[in-house]
Amino acid sequence: MHVNTLAERVHVLCQDKTRVLVAIVGAPASGKSTLASELARRLQLQKVKTVVVPMDGFHLHNDVLDARDMRPRKGAPETFDADGFLNLINRLKENVEVFSPTFDRAQDQAIAGAIEVPATTQVVIVEGNYLMFDEAPWEFLAPLWDLTARLDVPMEQLRARLIQRWLSLNYTRAVATRRAEGNDIPNAERVLKHALPCEINLT
Predict the structure, then answer these.
(1) 27: confidence class by pLDDT, cuts 50, 70, 90
(2) How far apart are the two ends of the chain, measured CA to CA in Å?
(3) What Å distances lie between residue 153 and 79, 82, 180, 181, CA to CA?
(4) Which pTM value belongs to this model?
């Protein structure tokens, strides 16, 4: 149902724009990546040239985080290259070829230039925690999107998913729980507390 709703809105926007930027927003483990992938697959089947760009490609490198004593807070807004990400989104609006980084969770690092966005791309789906966030410089992203959608997931469900995310990387339950409660869950709470309104809210 979520995919149908978003795809219908995207098709309407494509009638008037050569490129449509869709922001899929939500707390960590809310299902952003899955929804973005499913929406992209649907649009591609409908002959709409679509690329997914994850915000997570702009994680600062672990060496930089270590030098700033910020590795334990990885995933918080200040642990991203926010200005670099803002520049990328502005570039994507220019209908030119763009290359974007992605993030490898298993390696825990960003991979530069991994995603090609050809000039002919009609729809770019961007997914991330802070796309509609009321702290600078993230707040400057809000007017750049053509469509915004937020995934609203109850905190208790997010907590279970965040612990499972670490378990899937072969951490013990104790370590997985400690990592989730020490960083991921506070990040999720911050996303919810500082959320800017989106056009579509999905539950």
Answers:
(1) very high
(2) 11
(3) 23, 25, 16, 17
(4) 0.92
